Amino acid sequence: MRNDPAQIQMVLRESDLQSFADAYCRTAQIRVLRIPDRFWAWAHHLPVGVRVWLYGLFGRLPDLIVYHNLGNGHALATSIELKRPGGYLRPKQRAVADVEGWQVVRSPESFVEAITEAAAMAEKIKGELSREGGFLP
Question: How far apart are CA 16 and CA 94, in angstroms?
């Protein structure tokens, strides 16, 4: 079956999911921090010592950190790691993800769900802050 959802899910690559996430955030005008894939391709050609330093500095970041503005210079950040169906976190990623509460998404639908939940949480926080008089100085 050519359009069978189960078959489509099996061929979803992480790069496809990343492309979807980039396009979704760009269209919805959602602020995102992401280390571009080109950066890692470039880093691969650096001397080993520099590469190890860069991996130590940036290698523990999730694929996306999504920001929802709360006002007054504050934001709610959601850490999202993109994995293809059946993909898994590397041990170092798992250690950081468990401590920092990363959301691991494996489909475009679960990505939209994670973004929608984060936006709802940001709106709830903004509502609470407006009732309480805003952020403390």
Answer: 22
